[in-house]
Amino acid sequence: MGFAGRGAARSGYSQIGDNALAYACNSRNAASIAQSAWIIFLVPASAVEVLLA
Predict the structure, then answer these.
(1) What pLDDT does residue 7 have?
(2) Of 16, 18, 25, 43, which one has the fewest beta carbons inside 10 Å?
(3) pLDDT tens digits for the chain (53 residues)?
(4) What is the number of structural domains in the chain?
(5) What range defines the domain where residue 4 resides?
């Protein structure tokens, strides 16, 4: 199961929030509901950093 983000154009960075929300919703209980989520990058991330959600 996945979470379909809104918007026609999706960049790799905006999909990080969608993927983290989908993982959190699908891994906690048999049924989970979430309305929305977002990520604000305060500084640029490097390729080796890990996002914890």
Answers:
(1) 43
(2) 43
(3) 444 444 444 455 556 666 777 777 666 666 666 666 666 767 777 777 776 65
(4) 1
(5) 1-53
Residue 13 to residues 2, 45, 47, Cα–Cα distance (Å): 17, 10, 12
Please state, in angstroms and rounded to a whole number, the distance separating the CA atoms of residues 44 and 26.
28
Half-sphere exposure of 52 (CA within 13 A, CB side): 0
Between CA 27 and CA 22 the distance in angstroms is 8
H helix intervals, the chain: 12-28
| Percentages of the chain per state (helix, strand, coil), in multiples of 5 | 30, 0, 70
